Amino acid sequence: MAHLPPLRLLVTFEAIARHGSMRDAAARLNVTQPAVSQALRTLEDHVGAPLLDRSVRPARLTEAGEMLARGVRDGLGRIAATLEDIRALNATGERQVTVSCTLGMATYWLMPRLPGFYKRHPQITVNVQAPGTDLPVLTPGVDVALRYGTGRWLEGRTEKLFDELVCPVGAPALIERLLSDGHGLDRAPLIHVRSPRNLHWVGWEDYLQARGLVRPRDGGQYFDNYVQAAQAVYDGRGLMLGWRSITARAVQDGALRHWPDGTLDLGTAYFVTTVTTPSKDASTFVDWVHGEAAQA
């Protein structure tokens, strides 16, 4: 970090970029305008390029200045957000548990059940994170990870929540029409969830192969997350692979329908992972999750 300029220079420059002039930046920072001007020149010397075009009125950022302004704004924003997180974690009397899980798990399984947790434990706040990948991990600050797979993870302590089953689902009207027309899965419109970051979930190819079904390669419709794909399914655009934990409520409510005799056990399950010695509140949350899983 030795190549970075002093933080006060970056803060001063960010004020200039945000307010559009050294005069306004000086007023906001409660310093003199010459002090702001000197800080800017010192920063330019450090960068090795002019950051402000002084040949025009009003002066404006150069291309280098625009680049640095974006970087400084993002960096200071992250620092401010981190400080807020630290203050929240250390707030007097505030008890929190941070849970990491996939977007689909958060949207369709965990979040609808959280009001029940708060009713029993109003003093504990649950923060839910949905990482960009399909395999949540115990990064620093994460107390509990809910994840799908075979349970062969080495970090922390892992316990099974429930076995998972997969079955094609679709809008009831679409499935009724396909069945009436005599169409099977080999001719049904399929919706895929696929991205370079989602590698641990079974796809249509795996499912069809496991069922011994052959299907022409017609592409289908692709989405990079389960929530977007689910909306297309609700709209009757096609069938998607539905995991019991995620689609059970929609099937029960009649918004979705299972494909007849389509359920398949792939030997996978949902698991809960904690650090080896979890906090009392994290243990309370895990006990509650086990109870919800047993009821479901």
Task: Compile the SSE list and pairings.
Layout (H helix, E strand, L loop, with lengths): L6 H13 L2 H8 L3 H15 L4 E2 L6 E2 L1 H27 L5 E6 L2 H18 L3 E6 L14 E6 L7 E7 L2 E5 L1 H9 L10 E3 L10 H7 L10 E3 L2 H9 L5 E4 H10 L3 E2 L10 E6 L5 H16 L1
Parallel strand pairs: 3-4, 3-5, 8-9
Antiparallel strand pairs: 1-2, 5-12, 6-12, 7-10, 7-11
Helix pairs in contact: 1-2, 1-3, 1-4, 2-3, 5-9
What would you say this structure looks like, in words?
Strand 3 (about 95-100), helix 5 (about 105-120) and strand 4 (about 125-130) form a beta-alpha-beta unit. The chain starts with 6 loop residues before the first helix and ends with a helix. It is built from ten helices and twelve strands. The protein has a five-stranded mixed β-sheet, with helices on one face. Strands 10-7-11 form a three-stranded antiparallel β-sheet. Strands 1-2 form a two-stranded antiparallel ribbon. Helix content is about 45%, strand content about 20%. It folds into three domains: about 5-90, Arc Repressor Mutant, subunit A; about 95-165 and about 270-295, D-Maltodextrin-Binding Protein, domain 2, CATH 3.40.190; about 165-260, Periplasmic binding protein-like II (D-Maltodextrin-Binding Protein, domain 2, 3-Layer(aba) Sandwich).
Please estimate the helix content: 40-55%
Number of helices: 10
What value does the Rg take, in angstroms?
27 Å
Helix/strand/pairing class, anyone?
Answer: alpha/beta
| Outline type | elongated
Q: What's the SSE pattern? A: HHHEEHEHEEEEHEHEHEHEEH
Q: Mind telling me which CATH architecture of the largest domain this is?
A: 3-Layer(aba) Sandwich
Beginning-to-end CA distance, first to last residue:
51 Å
Per CATH, the superfamily of the largest domain is: Periplasmic binding protein-like II
In the predicted model, the low-confidence regions spanning at least 5 consecutive residues are none
Tell me what portion of residues adopts beta-strand conformation.
15-25%
Q: Going across the biggest sheet, name each strand in turn.
A: 4-3-5-12-6
Number of strands: 12
